[in-house]
Amino acid sequence: MNPTYHPDDDRPGLTVVDPVQNARYPINTTAPVEPESTDPDCFYFPVDSAIAFTTEKVVLPYVVPAVVRDREGTMLLETEHHAYETLPEGEYILELMAPIRLSVRVRGAVTIASSDERLAIAFGEPTRVRLGARSLHERPAGTVTTTAEPDDLARAVSTFGSALKTLSCERSLPTLRGHPPRLELGDELRIPAGLEPPESGVTIVVPPERTAIYAVSSLAYYLGATVVTGSNPRLETDRGFEHSLGETGAAFERSVERVLRHVFFLDCLTRTEGFYRIDLYERRRVEERLDVSFDELYEQSLAEQLAVYLSIPFETVADLQPAWQLATHVTPALENATVLPFLAADLSVISTVPGSTDELADGSTEPELEGELDLNLELEAKAEPELESEAKPESESKSTSEPEPSTDGDVDPTIDELTRSTTRPNRDRNRPSLESESFVSPPDVEALEQAWLGDGIPIGANKLVPRAFDNGLERSPSDGDVEITIVCNDSRMLAELDGELYGDREELPFDVTVHRDCSVAELRALIAAETDFFHYVGHVEGGGFVCRDGILEPESLVDVGVETFLLNGCRSYGTGLALLEAGSVGGIVTVSDVGNPDAVAVGRLIARLLNTGFTLRSAVDVARSYRLVGTQYVVVGDGGRSVTQSGGGVPNVCRIETGPERESALDGDHDTDDDVADEDGDGDENESENEDTQPKTDTVTDTTTAPLEGPVDRYRIRIRLYHGSQTGMGALYIPYIDGIDQYFLVGGELPLLELSGGALARFFRLEEIPVEVESELYWSSDGRFENL
Q1: What integer best gives the mean pLDDT of the chain?
Q2: Could you tell me the pTM of the whole model?
Q3: Buried b (16+ CB within 10 A) or exposed e, 304-318
Q4: Across residues 365-392, what is the average pLDDT?
């Protein structure tokens, strides 16, 4: 379903809606408009649909990067915040990097002006404007059938590159990488016409083992390579170049990963000589170290570029690469092959389970996992030792003789003793999903997020479920409001719903409904109804939802309209899996009992993160960074889903590095936001020692003020960037901060930024983001940041 356009009733203008991504973008005009369909082929880059209307001015609700081209596609200029550009009479195409990619084509004089809060494109007189929109969502173009034979599987994976929209280095842009075709299992190899591998001139030779083919899937997709089995694993081109990929096993997988990271990164730098000639921070840093002619590289073929890229030692530029978005640990079960297209679409690093052996071709056995782990011991192992001595949250440390104030006139709960299950585990009901699967602890990796594909309950990683990805493709798009359904089935837990958790965003309409004390029949109907996100607050017993008149068993659900969910009750893991099997796409569940005070805090934090555009995976990652109890929360299904779009396009967390001389500027009468306070006390959201997740060590300074010398109105900040559902590997970000005019690749932490208090306050007013100060988490909308 293509983007649609809806004239607004309450103001002059219209709203562009992407029903597949559930994204919306409002556009203001000088007078009401009557859009009419027009030819979508009139733009330089493809769009999915287009309209035409007449107006004197187009105003965007917030600033987005814009690129202006002439009718031949030559880039004339690019603008960000605080821009003022005038263009003489002519024909222009403007690309607007909004949550829905927009293109504007006009004939006439154009003035572009932007402030902190909006971007205006004025034409001086009523002008016919053609507006095109392209969804950032991609769907597979077809389905390839493969057998268990390694040669067939290799040929099937070779079709992934057919989804690339170009073989130039611009394929490092997420919008120029389509979705690989789906894979299904059958009794013979079948490749539909049009899904053949592109003529890239690149071949990857892999060992004739399923694990090796799994591991090379993302690299083969990105290079448009043909995969063949054989000895001496290597990457080779039709120009005679060869690069060894090491021996079989872990060495092979590590070599494949390094080549993917290295080639992708250098492509991101080379493409700045092409469609988007921007000032990229990482390119400048590489040019300080290497004598590389990116202008010459850009004109070379993919095969020629590979020879140059792989002549550069990996370690020379490894510390400048952005943190990788996703690393997935995969067991070699044959059915896992069907998930490979979705992992490749995310350019996930893929590794097989350590110590596992390849499943026999005749379908023998699933690899043995690490064995059962005691969850509580596992949580302790994940914690820093000093956390054991940290004070408990206030609500936990109160005497049980002093119950929390009741939130319901008929209930006087002792919240300190309340957990979100009505019975202790294994007392009266069997919980097959939790009891039959072992806990597994995936190894640490150099990536922002981790996923697990195989049997076992992963601690600290997204449990992938093949059925969930199929559900995502089968769901019907909606161009209505973002629909949120909240159910609270225990009045003692109402604190989780205090205030506006969802929908407090001007540019994005929400339809939020809250239901309390539901019966089995009422809850069944709510789960069957189409909704974007389902937030359950209450007890879970034996995997079932506890209702006022009994228990709703999730296995009894035939119709599930819930797309994504948060099941904030004890041991809801099996409950979430049942929803996925019945039609949901992804969700957040618990793998142990959770006390009510911690569940309230984590639930509120996750809700606000989802409301600001974080994906399921990244929201849990942030929650886990600030609360030890967050480790008890696991993402199941497609963790790359988000409930809504990020206001600025890229979800991020800002950390203010305070010193004694700056503490007074942040002191005040504002209490810590209880629902996001760091009760661990460690204050470290980046504890990994992997080089890709460590901050870059340079400092980018706000050049409009004096160098940092310790005055109270100077601040040092670090911004940690996450990928949203509208972005992917290779996306760009520019912080709208005075004096910062460079772009950065999305992923991990930006270099240390130094800026004035006024500049920081203006930055915080642009959108609501999480802000870490002295190991505690606040929100940029907090009043303490108004007068820095």
Answers
A1: 83
A2: 0.84
A3: bbbbbbbeeeeeebe
A4: 36
